[in-house]
Write a structure and sequence with these properties.
Blueprint (H helix, E strand, L loop, with lengths): L1 H21 L12 E7 L9 E10 L5 E7 L6 E5 L5 E2 L8 E5 L2 E6 L3 E8 L9 E13 L4 E13 L7 H12 L3 E2 L4 E6 L2 E7 L10 E4 L12 E4 L3 E7 L7 E8 L2 E9 L15 H21 L7 H10 L7 H31 L13 H18 L17 H15 L7 H6 L6 H24 L1 H6 L6 H55 L6 H17 L6 H10 L3 E2 L2 H9 L4 E6 L4 H11 L2 H9 L3 E6 L5 H9 L7 E5 L7 E2 L6 H9 L1
Parallel strand pairs: 11-18, 12-18, 19-21, 20-21
Antiparallel strand pairs: 1-2, 2-8, 3-7, 4-9, 5-8, 6-7, 9-10, 12-13, 13-16, 14-17, 15-16, 17-18, 20-22, 22-23
Length: 686
């Protein structure tokens, strides 16, 4: 009866759209199409033997809507008829998360705003470069308002050519945005139980993870009573969805909405589902978000505090702290400088956080220190650190702003805090990874609170020195020794410059590091001239400032990133490692092999320390070899969006990320961000 009702309603809606078109009177709905559709290819030159993703991009006319893959009580989904060259096959159509629309007590799963469906084409191997691949698609669909429905069709095409598979930056960003809207795999099985006229669906979902606008959209036809209200209740680390039962008896596929345009793919099998506890809470309550935010905030504060011992931040903090120990600084000035320093730190960290959130909202797979994926940014940082090294060494003095050696002045303290935050961005310490990963699921205002915590943690030492007089009194008294100490601090800052040059070489190759060193030499020469003038009692000439900016700008402009190519893969193979891919991971796990997968970047200082002191040690290598552990490395130096999406799926905003897959385990163990050889050896043997 339900199937008959579906057919009758759909036919009536269809007739309602056709009948007015047969009348003689003018009809405001007669002009179409009401869905503007285009077919877009991620790459116009796919490589033979590879895949290429096509986007079926749709913009409904105002007041009209298209239908999801399961339309609900009425309507029907779009039908696709592909005309493809020989050997090419089209995969399943992937849909974003829909919305609900109730008309005359009928539940519809629809799209009322712009939406995009994705289809992957498999290109056969052996096709010669330059081979034309004409792709044609005829789509038939139903488009409706709340009063009328019209069947329409669209003939679309795109002409591809076999090539190198290159994807332009604009196309990559566009398709990353499309993929961002797709529901994500939950990675764990769900269960459902039919109890009379109702059905309970149990979905694993961490208790601290935020949840808003929860709703279960069944992909399996007839799985639930579409129009029945849904009650979603948190019960520990699970969600219990209770609604009207349908006719399904086997596996049920669906999408669980967890926020605005965010969803998880759910696969449920029949089983026993206990009712939710009576004290369960409805999804989206502020307490859930508040608890998750507080946990992430605590981790961010601890992580920011630890950043102060990094070799690039410690010299700046040390000298600025010692400046407050001078007798000329009174209580009011000390507190003012501490607050100004904190304001400088927070301005940079919150600005970077807001940029990350904005880019992620646009679909980009970016995370902490994403700006270091651009070699031009590395050049600017390198020039800055070289200048600071020469300043600490005594070659010249920075006149304004007074970054390090200022005894007073809020402007100098603000600039010092901003500088410390800028140089700290390549670093990720303990507690930071999980905290910044929370930004992936928290609302934007809560995510900004996490970034605030990171900046606040970075500023805590100087705040304490500024506001706690006994701490200032405990600092060594100023004297001639400070000049020697300052020159000693030039060493860790110089090591930071060497590290940045190495990072630049990893991203831009030999030519890039050569340009960087030439630029550093140019900066050194200009600052040498500035120092000579200062020793004569003269100020730095404006021409020297222009030269500094010119050298930095020219170096950053001419440096270019180079692909890793086969050399990187060969180096990994020599170390008994493999370049990470989800396909290789699945293959190794299918063989029952334990897998250690780690994700790193040349600009990630924490990553490199872990590799030297833990991962690449003889003890760990021997343990991995003895127990046949496959080691896979994901290099995120250049911001590969595919890797970014994988990292994001494990609730991390960036690197490092360390995963250990035990044979037979459904999910990996996420390891801490500080590794030890004993920890990895024990995992291999376990």
């Amino acid at each position: 009866m339900r199937a008959l009702g579906f057919v009758i309603v759909t036919m009536l809606l269809w007739l309602a759209g056709v009948a007015p078109a047969m009348a003689q009177a003018p009809d405001p709905y007669s002009k179409g199409p009401h869905l503007a559709t285009t077919l877009i290819a991620e790459s116009m030159t796919p490589a033979a033997g590879s895949t290429v993703t096509l986007a079926y991009d749709v913009t409904p006319q105002r007041g009209w809507h298209g239908y999801w893959q399961n339309p609900g009580d009425a309507g029907f989904p779009a039908k696709f008829d592909w005309t493809l060259p020989a050997g090419i096959t089209a995969g399943a159509t992937l849909y974003p998360v829909p919305t609900t629309l109730i008309i005359a007590d009928l539940m519809n799963y629809v799209f009322e705003q712009h939406y995009t469906l994705l289809v992957t084409l498999q290109i056969p191997a052996g096709l010669a470069p330059g081979t034309a691949l004409p792709i044609k698609l005829r789509s038939n669909y139903l488009v409706c308002t709340e009063e009328i429905c019209v069947p329409e069709s669209a003939d679309l095409s795109v002409n591809l050519v076999i090539g190198d598979g290159a994807v332009t930056p604009a196309a990559r960003a566009q398709f990353d945005g499309f993929r961002q809207a797709l529901p994500k795999p939950i990675g764990m099985g769900a269960r459902y139980q039919v109890d009379g006229k109702s059905v309970r669906i149990e979905v694993p979902y961490p208790a601290a993870t935020p949840l808003t606008k929860a709703y279960f959209f069944p992909v399996t036809a007839g799985a639930v009573n579409y129009a029945a209200p849904q009650q979603v209740v948190r019960d520990g680390d699970r969600l219990v969805i209770e609604t009207g039962a349908g006719t399904a008896s086997g596996p049920v596929e669906g999408v669980l909405r967890i926020g605005d345009a965010k969803g998880l793919m759910v696969s449920a099998t029949p089983g026993t589902v206990a009712p939710a506890a009576k004290d369960g809470t409805a999804p989206g309550v502020p307490e859930g978000v508040l608890f998750a935010t507080l946990i992430a905030l605590g981790g961010a504060i601890l992580g920011g505090l630890i950043l102060n011992i990094m070799p690039c931040v410690f010299p700046i903090l040390s000298l600025k702290a010692l400046s407050l120990a001078k007798g000329s600084v009174n209580e009011r000035e000390a507190r003012g400088e501490a607050l100004a320093y904190t304001a400088g730190v927070l301005t940079v960290i919150l600005g970077l956080g807001a940029t990350i959130l904005a880019l992620r909202a646009g679909g980009a797979a970016v995370g902490w220190a994403f700006q270091l994926q651009n070699p031009a940014t590395i050049v600017v940082l390198l020039m800055l650190v070289v200048a600071l090294t020469l300043n600490l060494a005594g070659l010249f003095e920075i006149p304004t702003p007074r970054f390090v050696d200022s005894a007073s002045g809020a402007s100098g303290a603000f600039a010092t805090g901003a500088l410390a935050a800028i140089i700290a961005t390549p670093c990720t310490g303990p507690f930071m990874g999980a905290a910044l990963g929370a930004a992936l699921v928290l609302p934007w205002y809560a995510a900004l609170a996490v970034f605030f915590g990171l900046g606040f943690g970075l500023a805590i030492p100087f705040l304490l020195i500024g506001f706690v007089p006994p701490l200032r009194k405990a600092l060594p008294k100023p004297g001639a020794w400070m000049e020697t100490f300052r020159q000693i601090l030039a060493i860790p800052m110089g090591l930071t410059a060497i590290w940045l040059a190495w990072v630049l070489g990893g991203e831009a190759g030999t030519d890039g590091i050569t340009l960087g060193l030439i630029g550093a030499l140019g900066i050194g020469i200009v600052l040498f001239v500035v120092g000579k003038r200062q020793h004569k009692g003269l100020s730095a000439h404006w021409l020297n400032v222009v030269l500094l900016i010119g050298v930095t700008t020219a170096t950053a402009y001419y440096v270019r990133a180079v692909p890793k190519g086969a050399a990187g893969a060969a180096m990994l193979a020599a170390e008994n490692k493999a370049t990470f891919s989800e396909e290789k991971l699945a293959e190794a796990r299918a063989k029952g092999q334990p897998v250690f997968a780690y994700f790193t970047a040349d600009w990630c200082l924490t990553c490199k320390v872990n590799e030297r002191v833990a991962i690449d040690t003889d003890q760990v290598k021997a343990a991995f070899a003895k127990h046949n552990v496959a080691v896979m490395v994901g290099d995120w130096t250049d911001g590969d969006p595919k890797l970014g999406r994988f990292i994001e799926s494990h609730n991390r905003a960036g690197v490092p990320l360390y995963l250990f897959y035990k044979p037979g385990a459904s999910e990996p163990e996420v390891l801490p961000q500080v590794l030890t050889p004993a920890m990895l050896s024990e995992l291999a043997g376990g």
